């Protein structure tokens, strides 16, 4: 009897110890957890130049771009290494909330709908929306009315998908996970136009004479770009905003963007 009681007491002590360990971990801020593991894991969706895209550097495939340069600065200020996870755009916020990544930096607009599930940093870049078409069709598409009933390519889960549904009359939406796949659909004549940020459209058009950016203007409720952070992480939000403030003050944001555009055009 005493032996059984002894074992029961030991088991209870072990369970209490495990519980205390897990409680201690859960009480640590997201920022503290990142610093403890020594790395910042970011989620992105490469294939969206100049923000994030694949590039062969010294014979090795790398993910580079405007957002990646900013992420590197954030990691540097936190004193940790940077790890990049490339995934489908529509799955980024789920990955963030499930703890697979620490932050999402992927040319993401902080819409009111997204703010319901995640927090955002301050806006670090404001974009202009554009429409890519086949070069031979550029003169056919000058206004939103010209896109009426057309097959419109968009990246799934983006603000451009929402804009296509709201601003184009009777659109036939073709939403795919990756921008390169949508561009291929445009080149093959399976979609009539692709909605993206104008600078992204220009990056693709500059590398392919079969493509062109039309003169169509789209209105977005919020064209700003920000970093998504798991809710309840005020210290991490503050640290990220501090880095962004430094980069803006030193004009590094503009420098990073110009460098990324040039890299996308040259390769």
TrEMBL record:
SMART domains: PBPb, PBPe. The keyword Transferase does not apply. PROSITE patterns: PROKAR_LIPOPROTEIN. Keywords: Signal. GO terms for cellular component: membrane. It comes from Thermohalobacter berrensis. SUPFAM superfamilies: Periplasmic binding protein-like II. GO terms for molecular function: ligand-gated monoatomic ion channel activity. The keyword Signal applies. This is Amino acid ABC transporter.
